[in-house]
Amino acid sequence: MKKIVTLMLLLLFSTANAQENAKDENYRFLDDFRGSASITHNGVSLVPSFSLGDPALLFDLKFTKKKLSFEPDMRFSLDAKPWTMLFWFRYKAIEKEKFSLRVGAHPGLNFRTVNVIRNGNTEELLESRRYLGAEVVPSFKLSKHTSIGMYYLYGRGFDAGVKETNFLVLNAAFSQIPISESFFINFTPQVYYLTSDDLTGYYTSAFLTIGKKQCPFSLTGVINKGISTQILPDDDFTWSVLLNYSFPTKRKI
């Protein structure tokens, strides 16, 4: 765990230093680097029906070179125990005025605390489970602020637990909607179909973000409701509020 965190910090600082020292725009290690850090009372997974159930810290980084990007997604409980780590490699296959298509894949780790008995005493150990995932993300732009799209994720587990996951989402995105001269909102409602091995479920969820122009902080609310599901917890309702910090701080509105 310490080696992973150290590696990510070294990559972060070396990237920032390389960009800062670059004299020629054509001689840049990366075309772009950005990221965000969020704190929440209830950590929500990439699949909104799965949550940590406890306060969490979320870190998303993005290193971009042309159409390729490396995007670590790391989530921790507030006592610094890792929850999930996904190391995304993404490619913008199509970038048109009205249509875009992104594909990606990641190795991932999911962590949980287990109790074991050693020398007659109960101890807590952190257990990691390995996954591979792949995604396909088409999007159609309807107007300056509105788009519709689909998201499909396939996950394969290699250790104890869920072996196969399918996550299919239909969504709409309303982005950078001004509500005053300084503030804007992003709103993404969606419905999705989820399979977890032989179990299936249908859900609806929504994400609402309120931000201020030229301000690195924003606030996001997430709600998720099961419509018909065999996946526990049955017919669940989860919600979360996140305080986000994004960098770099320059925004194009």
TrEMBL record:
<protein>
    <recommendedName>
        <fullName>DUF481 domain-containing protein</fullName>
    </recommendedName>
</protein>
<feature type="signal peptide">
    <location>
        <begin position="1"/>
        <end position="18"/>
    </location>
</feature>
<keyword id="KW-0732">Signal</keyword>
